[in-house]
Design goal:
Elements: H1 2-20, H2 46-51, H3 54-64, E1 69-74, E2 77-82, H4 84-93, E3 99-101, H5 105-110, H6 132-139, H7 146-167, E4 173-175, H8 176-193, H9 199-202, H10 205-214, H11 226-255, H12 262-268, H13 279-292, H14 295-310, H15 312-327, H16 337-341, H17 344-356, E5 362-367, E6 371-373, E7 376-378, E8 383-387, H18 433-450, E9 451-455, E10 462-463, E11 469-470, E12 475-480
Parallel strand pairs: 2-8
Antiparallel strand pairs: 1-2, 3-5, 4-12, 5-8, 6-7, 9-12, 10-11
Length: 481
Amino acid sequence: MEPLYLTIIVIVTTIVLIILTYPKNSSSNHTNLPPGSFGWPILGETLEFLFGKPDKFVEKRMKKYSSHVFKTRILGENVAVFCGPIGNKFIFSNEQKLVTAWRPYSLQKLMRSYQQSDQTSPTPTPTLKPTQNETTVIRTPGFFKPEALARFLGVMDMTTKQQLKTHWEGKSKVQVYPLSKIFTLALASRFFLGIEDYDCVTKLVQEFDDVSLGLHCIPLNFPGTIFNRASKGAAAIRKQIISIIKEKKAAALLSGKPGRDILSYMIASTDSSGKFMPETELADKVMGLLTAGYSTVASALTFVMKFVGERPDIYNKILAEQMEIANSKKPDDTLNWDDIQKMKYSWNVACEAMRFFPPLQGTFREAITDISFEGYTIPKGWKIYWTVSSTNKNPEYFPNPEKFDPTRYEEGSAQVPFTYVPFGGGPRLCPGKEYARLAILTFLHNVVMKFKWEIMLLNEKMIGDMIPTPAQGLPVLLKPH
């Protein structure tokens, strides 16, 4: 009876929680809402969105209701889903004019410093608007600018070589996705935290996986639930990061100067009143950066490896491009900025892989005023879901869309604006876009110079909700040169 009792508790709590966080914005005064369905009472269409894959959820409703916008109710909110190049352009052009960032309640609870709510209320309203401090600390220092990334490129190259030596060399077969996660987490630890002994972070891969999965879920904190595992994972990561923060502070005090990494910058930064950021808030923001620079890059890398492994012709072209770069360098030279710019075909392959499997399916916004779009009204306070993949398989924009064709991105190729947007666009264009490009190309350079590989499961099932992943981790047979 105990499992049944627990199930009943979970169901009842779910309903109560959704009722408490049920959107207070009313649409009763708006008769010209977009087409669509709010789904079941209270639950809306949340379950299908979370467990039926967001891209399929959107594709189905685009065909049924509208290729530009439709309404639904997910995660306890009235939501307008914007689709296609028209929807992409509208979102990118109206950031902080008509729409602003919004994060689901589960994300706010896991990344606690991102949560803004009325503390007098027993149930925080699940809304978020970015603070000025968040924008200042994370976006303005210039760590993601090309000149800063160029200085980090040598470290990125050496870290890649070390990871391949540790986890790939001497193996006849490997699982690409788990090793990609270790690699990208090691890289993110060097870049964001400035630590060389990144094992203290990479040992938390499972915890980062749990947090990534829990960012968009029903926030039920019971043993066995997604959110419960994510909460435990976040606590473990936060504890480790706070330990690193203390070490950084002690080192800075001893040397008399801060480090040159992002975490050190954040530690030394003060607000307008001269106050330093609390360690718990620092840990939350750093956890957000690590999570963003970890799972999405690992997913992109994995699918690049998948498609290159399936196509010997593409592998040979990449190898030729990378051999030309390697032959122009001395044996101990690391990659530099000019080398990356020569990897045009390799990057085209990566772009096509991200068209098939975008590293992130979409993000949320909130309407800060009544919005008129395509003849419909989206009321103030409604949430907006912007989806990356609504154009990717449309033959109107990508002829023969099921064909893997890197030539789509060659210089001079005609491409309809706002149809290929894996990194978003406008003011909220992903600040880590260039970092991701360097990570993918540095890894690709090193792995093709050492191995050819064969995909073991050609029809491996793809799983995941907001971030796609191969169900078996993409096992490959390695053939060293």
